[in-house]
Design goal:
about 230 residues; mainly alpha
C-alpha cells in the first residue's frame, strides 16, 4: 500500500497483471475510515471550529427567518443550538466518514472503469479499477491527516494545503478565497495518481487520463463556488 507514494506506476502495473486481490481496496478503505473518524472527533472538538459553524448557521437562519418576529427567530435558533451539538456532529460525521470511505472508492472505480472501457476502449475488470482506486485512497488518508493538522493550527475547517495558506484572514464568503482553498495540493496529487492508475489499466496516456478526471472536478468545484456552495464542497 505504501509503495503507492513512491512508485505508483509499478504498483498499478502489478495490479493490472496479478490475480484479483480484495485487500488492495479493503485495507486502504478501512484505514481511511479510522482516520476519518479520528478527523471528525479532533475537528469537532475545536472551539474555534464550533464557533465558526455556529456563526455560519446563525447567519443562514437569520436570512431564512427574517420575516418572522424576533421572538420566533430566537426560539428557532435556541432549538437549533440544542440539536446541533458537538456530539451530534461527531456521531453524524463518524458515520459519514465510514460510509463515505467505502462509497467513494467504488464511485471512483466506476468512473475509471467507464472512462477506460467506454471512452478509451480498453477492456478491464471493474474490480481492477476498485483496487487502483483503493490504493489511491492512501493519498487521501495522508490528505485527511494534513487537513486535520491545518484545522487544529489555523482554527479554520476550510483551510487546505495550498495557496489558501498564504491568506492572512480566510473568508468563507469570499469566492476567491474558496477558489484558492479548492487548489489543494493533496487533491491534485490524488487526481494525478488516479490518472496514472487509469492510464496503466486502459493504456491511455497519463495526460489524457488526467484531463478526463481533472476537468469534471474543476467544473464541479467552480460551479459550487459560484453558486454559493463552495464551503460545503471543500
Amino acid at each position: 500500500m505504501f509503495n503507492v507514494f513512491a512508485t505508483p506506476g509499478d504498483v498499478f502495473q502489478e495490479v493490472k497483471t496479478s490475480s484479483p486481490n480484495y485487500t488492495n481496496w479493503l485495507a486502504p478503505v478501512l484505514l481511511a475510515s479510522v482516520v476519518g473518524v479520528i478527523y471528525v472527533f479532533v475537528v469537532f472538538s475545536q472551539d474555534t471550529v464550533l464557533h465558526q459553524m455556529r456563526e455560519q448557521r446563525e447567519k443562514a437562519m437569520e436570512k431564512s427567518l427574517e420575516k418572522l418576529p424576533k421572538e420566533k427567530r430566537d426560539e428557532a435558533m435556541a432549538m437549533t443550538e440544542k440539536f446541533f451539538t458537538p456530539t451530534f456532529f461527531k456521531v453524524l460525521g463518524s458515520f459519514g466518514a465510514v460510509a463515505g470511505s467505502f462509497g467513494w472508492v467504488f464511485f471512483m472505480a466506476l468512473v475509471m472503469w467507464l472512462l477506460g472501457t467506454k471512452v478509451f476502449k480498453h477492456d478491464f475488470a471493474f474490480m481492477k479499477a476498485a483496487e487502483v482506486a483503493g490504493l489511491c485512497t492512501m493519498i487521501a488518508v495522508l490528505g485527511s491527516i494534513v487537513s486535520m493538522l491545518l484545522v487544529v493550527v489555523t482554527g479554520n475547517m476550510l483551510m487546505t494545503a495550498g495557496p489558501a495558506l498564504l491568506l492572512s484572514n480566510f473568508d468563507a464568503a469570499n469566492k476567491i478565497h474558496l477558489g484558492l482553498a479548492a487548489l489543494n495540493v493533496m487533491t491534485i496529487w490524488y487526481i494525478s495518481v488516479l490518472a496514472l492508475g487509469l492510464s496503466r489499466l486502459s493504456r491511455a496516456s497519463w495526460v489524457k487520463a488526467f484531463l478526463w478526471l481533472a476537468l469534471p472536478w474543476a467544473v464541479i468545484k467552480t460551479g459550487m463556488i459560484l453558486l454559493g456552495f463552495g464551503a460545503a464542497g471543500m
